[in-house]
Amino acid sequence: MKKLKETVLVHKSEMLWILIFGLMVFGIIFNQPIQQNDESTLFNETKKMADGLTIYKDINVLVTPLFFYVGAVILKIFGVNYFVFRLYAVGIWLFLYGVVSQLLRQRKVSKLAIFLDLLLMTLFLKEVMAVSANYNMLAIGLSLLALLKYLEKGERDRKFYIQQGILLFLIFMTKQTIGVYHFLATAICELFLRSEKWKDKIKYWGWYSLPIGIGMLVYCAYLWGIGSLYEFIDYAFLGMLEFRQNATMESYVIGLVLVNVVPVIFLWNQKKLEVEQKILFLYSVIMLLIAYPILCEFHSKMALIFSLVSFFSWTNQKTSKQNLFQNSLLFIVSCYVCVMTSKNIANWYTYRIKEKMDPYFGAVYQEEINGKIENVVAYMREKEVVLVSPEVYLYQARLGTQHGILDLPLRGNVGLHGKEKIIEAIEELEDTPIMMTNYRYFQEYSEVYEYVAEHYEKVETVMSCFEVYEKR
User: Fold this and answer.
1) Of the spans 238-252, 274-288, 312-326, which averages the highest pLDDT?
2) Residue 318: pLDDT over 80
3) What percent of the chain has pLDDT over 90?
4) How many CA atoms lie within 13 A of 274 on its CB side?
5) Nearest to 123 by CA among 308, 323, 351
6) ∠ at Cα 398 (392, 402), nearest 5°?
7) Do residues 161 and 190 make contact, with C-beta atoms less than 8 angstroms apart?
8) In this predicted structure, what is the pLDDT of residue 366?
9) Beta-bridge partner residues of 437
10) pLDDT tens digits for 379-409?
11) What is the pLDDT of residues 193-247, one digit of tens each?
12) CA distance 299 to 303
């Protein structure tokens, strides 16, 4: 007990930070109703794994699997519901905050400035945070951790590069594209910003590549043994050829990119700019690729996390002393965040779903959406229809059913030749009625709707937004 007390006293400031940011993140993530978004999709995919289904073989996941393995273990141990899944999200965000804090401390940023920076980052990212646990955020946190270790002073020996290789493997296994972008940024830094001889670079890069090479061989051998290797390659790699057809761009994204890239170009050749700051700037530019191919606000804000870190590092290097503006801004932002957090937690506590056996336990009850879920679930159970729509994950947690790729029939999510696979899966249903939305998500295949219109007959409209079809 005495030792614990001493530990608390030594690390009291860090523990206070964890409490403050933990409550803030908790309030934003938990004060959300059930919605048809990434949270419902990722929760149900993770739930399927916790229920014993096999990733790729039974679940069409379009990314590498680490996020889902960790999430499935957490759900299996603590309970398969939104409350536990959102705690998983809180853990991911606190991990990210901890790494960003350490990066800024490494750059000699003061504690108060770091506190202000993290508050500002929260306000910028609160819409991203509200979507709960997400593999992108876990991969970004791991990438920042690798960057933190990369910037540490010390001998760059075999141990250093093996450590970097292990972190690269973890990033790649969480989100394959972010792993590739991280590798690209590191390679450019090694080639142009580090002074080792080419002979040493080649030797060290052999050690850097070793962990990901061995790790991927072992994992692929495991997948081959359970009969999921082809699906893994198809969904996580070949499917990207179709996923890029979803490319969209909101106009203001160009402005966000220019705001990030132009200052880097302007500052790059400053004589006093340290190599470490150049590395941060370089990563911030390369990691803008995270937003591709769906260049929307959600993806763009995630991609700009590296830019925020490099910007905070550079500006606080220039203003090492606390000034009146910083103190005033810190006070104003702290007051705003305090009020926001209090309101979020109070609203969640008042309107949360309290039934612990409900998979939606812990989410905010919203009469309209919860009523819709109850009615659709009751109808599907009574009529034994199969919902062919990405919206199925809004209802599937209570239904407890699964229909393979028909649960997420989106372009890029079902591997190469996706529309043919979806149509084939519908044909295998034989005489089972199907239900589809009377509106279409931009990632859905129009050819699937055309196939249904040609081979099925509409027999009923449900709740004005679903149409039920039977085979002709």
Assistant:
1) 274-288
2) no
3) 65
4) 11
5) 308
6) 50
7) no
8) 92
9) 466
10) 999 999 999 998 999 999 999 888 999 999 9
11) 776 676 667 778 889 999 999 999 999 999 999 999 999 999 999 998 898 888 7
12) 6
Give the torsion sign (CA, 133, 134, 135, 136).
negative
Task: Provide the token pair at 464.
Answer: 């004005």
Structure tokens at 56: 């790729």
pLDDT confidence of residue 411 = 93
pLDDT of residue 203: 78
The separation between the first and the last C-alpha atoms of the chain, rounded to the nearest angstrom, is 74
Helix 176-192 vs helix 198-226: angle between axes, to the nearest 10 degrees? 170
CA trace torsion 147, 151, 153, 159 (10° rounding): 40
Burial 190-218 (b: 16+ CB within 10 A, else e): beeeeeeeeeeeeebbebbebbbeebeee
| pLDDT tens per residue, range 355-377 | 999 999 999 999 999 999 999 99
Is residue 38 within 8 A of residue 299, CB to CB? The reply is no
Tell me the percentage of the chain whose pLDDT exceeds 70.
Answer: 93
- Tell the residue number behind the tokens 């350490």, with chain if given: 102
Distances (CA, A) of 94 to 17, 100, 118, 382: 10, 10, 11, 43
